[in-house]
Amino acid sequence: GESVGLHLPTLSVQEGDNSIINCAYSNSASDYFIWYKQESGKGPQFIIDIRSNMDKRQGQRVTVLLNKTVKHLSLQIAATQPGDSAVYFCAERFSGSARQLTFGSGTQLTVLP
Amino acid sequence: GAGVSQSPSNKVTEKGKDVELRCDPISGHTALYWYRQSLGQGLEFLIYFQGNSAPDKSGLPSDRFSAERTGGSVSTLTIQRTQQEDSAVYLCASSSQSGGETQYFGPGTRLLVL
């Protein structure tokens, strides 16, 4: 079946550096994508979303890039802080299908002091 | 409340017992979702409610799982005759409209079946 996957299960970065978390999706009909952050013992927290008619969207310290040609999604975090340490999930919504999101397996981001 | 709330936060039960998990969505949100998250894994969709429409139950893993949503607000997920493989975090989310628009998650219920 269709799936969303992440290239790297773990990522360690130095505090202050930029982080890039990647995600590959397989359904070209997906029209909406979301990045969530999940800290230990908590539910996923919305970070940023992007629709398929866009290729870039910026938030506060975060940028999401969408490359529909290669079905690739990335989350860039600028000036990574210790509080950014968490598991990051990308999720996609299949256009015209059921309403639920399909999540990838997550990337553990660790920020080193 | 300001966000999605779930109760209990933790539940330990014995194999074969029934459990009920509760979700209070954000006030005014018409869509409600249940997901299951096993240790170190992503989120697995279980069921989706939208307004008064029939729920999408396509993600329920077996007939031991059921959910209801009363009055278009609070939802209860029931697992009958629990098995050890049911141990997971059960997450609830709500959104203001259908179609998978931004879903806001609760803290989850951590279920352990002994």
Subunit organisation of the chains:
heterodimer
Number of extended strands of chain A = 11
Encode the helix/strand succession of chain B as letters: EEEEEEEEEE
Class from helix and strand fractions of chain A: mainly beta
Q: Whole-number average pLDDT of chain A?
A: 88
Rg calc of chain B:
13 Å
Helix-strand pattern of chain A, N to C?
EEEEEEEEEEE
Beta content of chain A comes to over 45%
- What is the CA-CA span between the terminal residues of chain B? 33 Å
**CATH H-level name of chain B... which superfamily?**
Immunoglobulins
Number of helical elements of chain B: 0
Number of helices of chain A: 0
CATH architecture of chain B, please?
Answer: Sandwich
* Shape, principal axes of CA atoms of chain B: globular
Q: State the separation between the terminal residues of chain A, measured CA to CA.
A: 40 Å
What does the secondary structure layout of this molecule look like, with pairings?
The complex is a heterodimer of chains A (113) and B (114).
Chain A: E1 4-5, E2 10-14, E3 19-25, E4 30-38, E5 45-51, E6 56-58, E7 62-67, E8 72-77, E9 86-94, E10 102-103, E11 107-112
Parallel strand pairs in A: 2-11
Antiparallel strand pairs in A: 1-3, 3-8, 4-5, 4-9, 6-7, 7-8, 9-10, 9-11
Chain B: E1 5-7, E2 10-13, E3 19-24, E4 31-37, E5 43-50, E6 65-69, E7 75-79, E8 88-95, E9 104-105, E10 109-113
Parallel strand pairs in B: 2-10
Antiparallel strand pairs in B: 1-3, 3-7, 4-5, 4-8, 6-7, 8-9, 8-10
